[in-house]
Amino acid sequence: MSETRFWLIRHALVEENARAILYGVMDVALCETTLLEQAPMYRALAERLPHPANWIVTPLSRTQRTAAAIFDAGYPHIPPAIEPDLIEQSLGEWQGLPHAELPSKLAHPKHAFWPLAGNEKPPGGESMEEVVARAGSTLERLAIAHEGEDVVIVSHGGTIRAAVAHALGVAPDNALHLSIQNLSLTRLERHSEGWRVVCVNELPGY
C-alpha cells in the first residue's frame, strides 16, 4: 500500500454568539471580523498545502467557507467533496445550551480541555468514543480510495482529535488533551505498516 497523506485543518473561528453555547453540529456562522484579520493565515495555508490534492469538507458551512477562503487566498480552486462522517461530535439535546448549564447534566466529570469526558454520551448525541470510531473508519476508507495521494480535509476540533486518537491507538480522553486551534494543520499518513502522525496543531505562518 502506497502512503496516503492527510492534511487536516480545523475550520475558522465561529461568531461570538455561537461561542457562548454548545454548538456541536449546529450550522453556525464564522466570525466575519476574524476572517478579515486572519487573511495572512489563509495565504500561508494556500502556499503550504500540497498541489494537487483531493479536498473534503463536512456538511456544515463553517468548513465549506473556510475552504473557500483558502481558495480565495491563492490555492487553485477544487470543488470539495462533502463527507458527513467527518462532522463534529453531536451533542444531541445539549446543543444550544449555554456552557454554564452543562455541568449539572453530566453523568461523568468533565474533561479538563473539552466540555465532556470521552465516555459521556449526551441524550440523542454521541460520545467521543463514538466519534473516534466514526472518524477512524472514515479515514481508513479514504486511505484506500485515495491511496498514494494527498487529501486535504477541513473539519472540526473534536473530529481532528478523534482522528489523531485513531492514528495513535489511544483512548479518547488522551486525545482530548491535544490543542487543535482554529486554522491549525494536523498531518497524518496511512502506510501499509500503519498510521504515522507527522504534526499536530501546526499554525500557518509560524
CATH architecture: 3-Layer(aba) Sandwich
Task: Tell me how many strands there are.
Answer: 6
What is the distance, rounded to the nearest whole angstrom, between the alpha carbons of the first and last residues? 33 Å
- Can you count the helices? 7
Residue windows where pLDDT falls under 50 for at least 5 positions: none
Write structural notes for this entry.
With 206 residues, the chain is an alpha/beta fold. It has one domain: Phosphoglycerate mutase-like (Rossmann fold, 3-Layer(aba) Sandwich). Strands 3-2-4-1-5-6 form a six-stranded mixed sheet. It is globular. It starts with a strand and ends with a strand.
In short:
With 206 residues, the protein is an alpha/beta fold. The protein has one domain: Phosphoglycerate mutase-like (Rossmann fold, 3-Layer(aba) Sandwich).
Main attributes?
206 residues; alpha/beta; Rossmann fold; 6 strands; 32% helix
List the topology elements.
Layout: E1 4-10, H1 16-19, H2 32-37, H3 39-48, E2 54-57, H4 61-72, E3 81-82, H5 128-145, E4 150-155, H6 157-168, H7 172-175, E5 185-191, E6 194-202
Parallel strand pairs: 1-4, 2-3, 2-4
Antiparallel strand pairs: 1-5, 5-6
Helix pairs in contact: 3-4, 5-6
